[in-house]
Write a structure and sequence with these properties.
Number of helices: 8
Strand order of the largest sheet: 1-2-4-3-7-8-9-10
Shape: globular
Order of helices and strands: EEEHHEEEHHEHEHEHEH
CATH class: Alpha Beta
Helix content: 25-40%
CATH superfamily: Alpha/Beta hydrolase fold, catalytic domain
CATH architecture: 3-Layer(aba) Sandwich
Radius of gyration: 16 Å
Number of strands: 10
Strand content: 25-35%
Largest sheet: 8 strands, mixed
Length: 226
């Protein structure tokens, strides 16, 4: 793997043997190193070229440690909403601050990759998956496949009007039934929207938390290589 600077992003790259690329966006407080090992499990033959993008924002994740993010989140407010059962109201009527800006930046990177690859797949975990869905809603030609790991719905009116852009993009969604960060109820709302729109769509709920367990990795591998 190599480290590169692309379209104002720091990127871990792993070149493959085909003309297909996969772009992966990590979760809040992690970094591009967090999901990079997945390529060994998802693509053992080295077919795809992989691009693990680092979020541009530095955030304090506690204990003197810093992580990266795609857009700012009021973590105290989020924790309060989770504790009081009001999480559904946090993002229900608006897109998170900074999401539109980072959507445009990621879209620019995808367009540059289109010059070198015939197929570009996009996806991410948690906050990275929110950016991924926003990118597809902004430009239906931005990705040839989409995977949303531990994701959530937000700005429900936008999803009602723009989720049609998902329709021809094969989409994979997974979520833990005991997710303490992004409640499964919101993932189920996202599922309700997408299952009626996307021609090739699969939703994989699992017993677990805010994670990507091995059975989901195996299902995602099948989805990507199909």
């Amino acid at each position: 793997m190599n480290f590169e600077r692309m379209n104002d992003f720091d990127v871990i790259t792993k070149k493959g043997t085909s003309d297909k690329a996969i772009v992966v966006l990590h979760g809040y407080g992690a970094s591009f190193q967090d999901l990079a090992p997945l390529h060994r499990y998802l693509d053992p033959a080295g077919e795809f070229s992989w691009y693990f993008i680092d979020g541009p924002l530095s955030v304090d994740v506690g204990m003197g440690m810093m992580g990266k993010a795609w857009f700012p989140i009021d973590m105290m407010g989020l924790q309060t909403a989770l504790a009081t059962g009001t999480f559904e109201k946090v993002f229900a009527d608006h897109s998170p601050e900074g999401l539109d800006e980072i959507t445009n930046k990621v879209l620019g990177l995808l367009k540059s990759l289109r010059e070198d690859f015939s197929k570009v797949f996009l996806g991410g975990f948690s906050q990275g998956s929110m950016v991924s869905s926003s990118v597809v809603m902004k430009d239906k030609d931005s990705a040839d496949k989409l995977f949303l790991l531990s994701s959530t719905i937000y700005d429900e009116k936008r999803f009602e009007s723009d989720a049609k852009n998902f329709s021809t993009i094969p989409t994979f969604q997974s979520h833990g039934s005991a997710d303490p960060v992004l409640p499964v109820s919101m993932a189920n709302k996202l599922n309700t929207v997408l299952k009626d729109i996307v021609e090739e769509y699969e939703y994989h709920p699992f017993s677990g938390g805010h994670e990507i367990p091995l059975p989901i990795i195996e299902k995602l591998k099948t989805f990507l290589q199909r």
